[in-house]
Amino acid sequence: MKPIRLAPQDNRTQPRGHSWPSNLLVEATLGKDKKLRTAYKVVAHIIAAAVVIQAALIAWTLFGFIPGFEEGTVPDGPPFSAMLHGSIGMYAAPVLALALVVIALLGHAGLKWALWLVAAVVVQIALAFIAFGAPWVGALHGLNAFTIIALAEVGARAVAHAPEHVPSAKQVMRPAV
User: N or C: which terminus of the chain has fewer CB atoms within 10 Å of its end residue's CB?
Assistant: First the structure.
């Protein structure tokens, strides 16, 4: 998007002490917002990709167990793929979701989606712990993963199509004379 162009400033119509062109401030602010919105989209896509990677890791774990179950053996401990699945879910996803909230606050777009995403990640972690005691909850854990992907991608799309934010428009812009 092109930056918003304001009417040329005439120093004779500006109040004392305001001799610098105010549209430079607006363009600088819009540039910062654009970078933060790009960061929001990148982090949201990383979160969605992390969930897909987790699904692949847990499938790898399960299909690695099946031959042992058929032979009647039980594994000694969790395989590396299961530990990596848990690490991404317990550490990477929550940190990325909280980073998305910070980016949304600073970038002035996507806060609603980022907060819903944080809530979905919290529910996901709770479902994971509950599933160890009640395995049927594992199905809800898997379904909630789709919710996390959807929230991340819808939030990224919403930010991509959000209108530009001009802070303190009353102080920065003056009508053309």
Answer: N
